[in-house]
Specification:
The chain is α+β, with helices and mostly antiparallel strands. The protein is built from three helices and six strands; from the N terminus they run H-H-E-E-H-E-E-E-E. The protein is about 30% helix and about 20% strand. A hairpin with a 2-residue loop joins strand 3 and strand 4. The radius of gyration is 21 Å and the shape is globular.
């Protein structure tokens, strides 16, 4: 028969073990963007292809007039250490108004959802409209006053272990046509 003291000790031990496991596992236990399924690692070219291919799909599907686009790699943590993820930024012309931009994005979301893009789960938080497909997250910027163009950002899986601090963050223009 267990005593209240022994039961409290067992509960405290279980809680301590769970805390230690969380601390040892690092941010992956609390960061839903760290491992988004699929393979355990990617190389730099796979990381790039993942987001560039998704960006090409979006541009073609939406018949999006692209002003400019670039690719870069970014760290998935605040220290600039691996893992890294591919990132594409697309700039397109402003809509006539903020309301027209909101309606445009709502229609784009509807169209992309017919192509397999879905809304992220409840643990994903952003002020922008976001969709996800095959581990790539796309966010649509809100049109702001004084901006010269609108933007879309695509972020890939945090699985690139080959990029380094020295090579991350370097931007390159890309053609999505």
């Amino acid at each position: 028969m267990s005593t209240p003291k022994r039961t409290a000790h067992a509960a405290a031990t279980t809680l301590a073990a769970a805390l230690v496991a969380t601390l040892i596992s690092g941010c992956g236990a609390v960061n839903p963007m760290k491992d988004q399924g699929g393979a355990n690692t990617m190389d730099a070219e796979q990381s790039k292809a993942q987001v560039v291919d998704a960006a090409k799909e979006i541009v073609a599907t939406l018949k999006l007039p692209v002003d400019s686009a670039y690719f870069r790699r970014s760290s998935c943590n605040d220290q600039g250490d691996p893992p890294f993820q591919g990132s594409v930024r697309i700039w397109y012309p402003l809509a006539p108004s903020s309301e027209a931009s909101d309606a445009q994005v709502a229609e784009w979301v509807r169209v992309l959802q017919t192509k397999g893009w879905t809304t992220p789960g409840p643990d994903f938080h952003t002020h922008a409209t976001a969709l996800i497909k095959n581990g790539v997250t796309v966010t649509f910027d809100r049109q702001g006053v004084g901006r010269k163009s609108n933007g879309i950002e695509l972020l890939g899986k945090c699985l690139d272990m080959t990029t380094t601090k020295e090579t991350a963050g370097l931007s390159e223009d890309i053609d999505l046509g």
